Amino acid sequence: EALSRQSGQLLNIVATVFFGVFAYLLWKDLLPALSKLNDFEVWSYTRDAVGEDGGKTLVDVPVSLWRIIQSIFIAVVAVVAARNLPSFIEAFFLKRTSMEPASRYAFKTVAGYMILIIGLIIGFNKLGVEWSKLQFVVAALGVGIGFGLQEIIANFISGLIILFERPVRIGDYVTIGDQSGTVNRIQIRATTLGD
Fold first, then answer.
1. In this predicted model, what pLDDT tens digit does every residue of 140-195 receive, in sequence order?
2. Distance from C-alpha of 117 to C-alpha of 111, rounded to nearest angstrom
3. What are phi and psi of 187, to 5 degrees?
4. Structure pTM?
5. Closest Cα to residue 84, out of 185, 19, 7, 189?
């Protein structure tokens, strides 16, 4: 059932891509008009660059409306790819290998998160948000995690341990306290039991 649903989603994505290519070929003469969106500067940021004398200089880089649209498009593509591409990889490539089902599931889950993270980093770089500028946000997040989000981070790390060490696999019947059931899904944040 899951494979059928994922195949249907994959067909929808392929149809959407073909529609996008067709729309591009149909409207490619109008695309130069979108260059006008490059003239609308929303904000600018400074970045280090190499000057003519070989030294470092600061350069103002404008962020236009066109770059914001590109960033949103990259983020949407990353979310769609993170949901569907790992299932496609599993269905067409990993099932032909000698990997165990639990290893394939772990690979599929981590691949989805990696696709999402890489897509979001590329989208944020389009807007001028670099890792060096996020240092203080990450430090504040570390303090927040230390105080208020300990349980969420503990669940996240536990999910990674379950995915990679595989003490519990999909299809195993487990008992936790007074709850018993079959493991249906293992994710980084939670493991789902069913009857």
1. 777 776 777 677 777 777 777 777 777 777 778 888 788 888 887 777 667 777 77
2. 10
3. -120, 175
4. 0.61
5. 7
